[in-house]
């Protein structure tokens, strides 16, 4: 199961043709995707030309109404950039982080994932920024796999940025003194460990994807192993 | 002659004379678009008025780096009109409306100015260069306020196809029109 590329949504977005929930998600994505923002600006410039086809003089009385109405309407104050403004990724408000989390996870999991699975706010922000950074790549894509015994593993990856983010959720309980271990495997199934996980909550792990063909998840003794213990709990092809 | 962008910048300083000039310039585009989407004349007037008041209220937030003044105003107008359609659809029977609307554009209503006519002619020519599915997808969304799932339903096409046709149709339109930033700003 692969998600449609989020970047193709620029077309329907510019035409105001996204249903409400998708629009909210896409706008969250836009805050992180410079490529999409540029395309939206360009396509919008083209789309509004469609209005030339239907230009119609308004009824004569309308202008007087508008001019009278604005007498009573206060103009918004200009938006002032925050002093010592920080890069975009650090300026997230709580709300935008949650929106972004919802967006990223919805893209990642192609279904409802409760954002409240995040228990630690700073961890959530870190996770969101990592996911957003990968999702912002023009070649970003997601792959999913089910985990033996229950739960899901989702990998969001960008070949261009040589980055991947792994989202694990609803994993089964581990045997005592054991840990989840995450691997990237090349086409010959040579595995490189990319980290350990307790699997308690949604977790995000960063990993390089160069030359890798498969994501693997295994159960290992505490502290992890040098090579994966088979059979793996999940194997997710990256293509 | 002052550009739309200049007039909008002056409007942002509270200059009602500039806003009045801006109104004369853009109101036919706004009203025409809103009317095309909503059809109902009384509602169209109401929404046009809302849009123009919104332009006055939020002029200070216009960012020239994100597109021309013209584009900014028509974006507000399109979204407002579409919002009205959607909120009404929530309670109305959708299918009746779908049948009653046509994709055809009323060319005879085009405002009577030479530059508008030339521009409209160019847009019409460029629309003609799109594939049928690209053109229909874009027109149903832009002029009728349909969501892409509604467009897909209407045209009997798959959702990813419609999303892609909207995007590549707009890209083709952009290239054909040679749309560049700042022409009107």
From TrEMBL, chain A:
Residues annotated as domain Putative zinc-finger: 6-33
Record-linked InterPro entries: Anti-sigma-K/W_factor, Anti_sigma_zinc_sf, RskA_C, Znf_put
Membrane topology annotation: Single-pass membrane protein
Gene Ontology annotations of biological process type: regulation of translation
Keywords attached to this entry: Cell membrane, Membrane, Transcription, Transcription regulation, Transmembrane, Transmembrane helix
Coiled-coil region(s): none
Recorded GO MF terms: sigma factor antagonist activity
Localization per Swiss-Prot or TrEMBL: Cell membrane; Membrane
Record-level GO cellular component terms: plasma membrane
Chain ranges of the Anti-sigma K factor RskA C-terminal domain: 100-231
Top-level taxon of the source organism: Bacteria
Cross-referenced PANTHER family: ANTI-SIGMA-K FACTOR RSKA
Protein name: Regulator of SigK
Organism from which the protein derives: Kribbella pratensis
From TrEMBL, chain B:
Sorted UniProt keywords: DNA-binding, Sigma factor, Transcription, Transcription regulation
Keyword Transcription appears in the UniProt entry: yes
GO molecular function: DNA binding; sigma factor activity
Span of domain RNA polymerase sigma-70 region: 22-89
InterPro entries: RNA_pol_sigma-70-like, RNA_pol_sigma-70_dom, RNA_pol_sigma70_ECF_CS, RNA_pol_sigma70_r2, RNA_pol_sigma70_r4_t2, RNA_pol_sigma_r2, RNA_pol_sigma_r3/r4-like, WH-like_DNA-bd_sf
The keyword Heme appears for this protein: no
GO BP annotation list: DNA-templated transcription initiation; response to stress
Residues in RNA polymerase sigma factor 70 region 4 type domain copies: 121-172
Pfam families: Sigma70_r2, Sigma70_r4_2
Family the entry assigns: Belongs to the sigma-70 factor family. ECF subfamily.
The protein's name: RNA polymerase sigma factor
Organism: Kribbella pratensis
């Amino acid at each position: 199961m692969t998600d449609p590329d989020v970047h193709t949504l620029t077309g329907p977005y510019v035409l105001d043709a996204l249903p409400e929930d998708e629009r909210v998600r896409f706008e969250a994505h836009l805050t992180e995707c410079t490529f999409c923002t540029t395309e939206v600006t360009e396509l919008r410039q083209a789309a509004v030309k469609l209005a030339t086809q239907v230009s119609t003089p308004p009824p004569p009385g309308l202008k007087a109404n508008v001019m009278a109405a604005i007498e009573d309407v206060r103009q918004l104050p200009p938006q002032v950039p925050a002093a010592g403004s920080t890069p975009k990724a650090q300026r997230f408000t709580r709300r935008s982080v949650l929106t972004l989390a919802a967006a990223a996870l919805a893209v990642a999991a192609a279904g409802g994932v409760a954002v409240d699975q995040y228990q630690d706010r700073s961890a959530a922000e870190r996770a969101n920024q990592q996911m957003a950074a990968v999702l912002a790549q023009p070649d970003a894509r997601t792959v999913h796999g089910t985990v033996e015994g229950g739960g899901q593993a989702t990998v969001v990856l960008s070949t261009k940025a040589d980055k991947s983010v792994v989202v694990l959720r609803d994993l089964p309980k581990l045997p005592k003194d054991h840990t989840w271990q995450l691997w990237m495997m090349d086409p010959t199934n040579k595995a490189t460990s990319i980290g350990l996980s307790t699997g308690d909550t949604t977790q995000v792990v960063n990993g390089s994807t160069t030359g890798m063909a498969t994501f693997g998840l295994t159960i290992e003794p505490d502290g992890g192993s040098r090579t994966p213990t088979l059979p793996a709990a999940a194997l997710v092809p990256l293509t | 002659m002052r550009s739309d962008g200049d007039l909008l910048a002056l409007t942002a300083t509270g200059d009602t004379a500039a806003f009045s000039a801006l109104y004369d310039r853009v109101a036919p585009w706004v009203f025409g678009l809103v009317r095309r989407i909503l059809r109902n004349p009384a509602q169209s007037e109401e929404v046009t008025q809302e849009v123009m008041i919104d332009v006055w209220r939020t002029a200070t937030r216009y960012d020239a780096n994100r597109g021309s003044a013209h584009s900014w105003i028509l974006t507000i107008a399109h979204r407002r009109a579409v919002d009205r359609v959607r909120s009404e659809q929530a309670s109305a029977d959708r299918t009746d409306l779908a049948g009653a609307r046509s994709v055809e554009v009323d060319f005879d209503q085009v405002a009577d100015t030479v530059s508008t006519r030339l521009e409209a002619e160019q847009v019409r020519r460029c629309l003609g260069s799109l594939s049928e599915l690209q053109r229909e997808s874009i027109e149903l969304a832009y002029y009728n306020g349909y969501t892409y799932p509604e467009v897909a339903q209407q045209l009997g096409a798959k959702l990813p196809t419609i999303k892609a046709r909207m995007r590549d149709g707009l890209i083709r339109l952009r290239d054909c029109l040679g749309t560049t930033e700042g022409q009107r700003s």
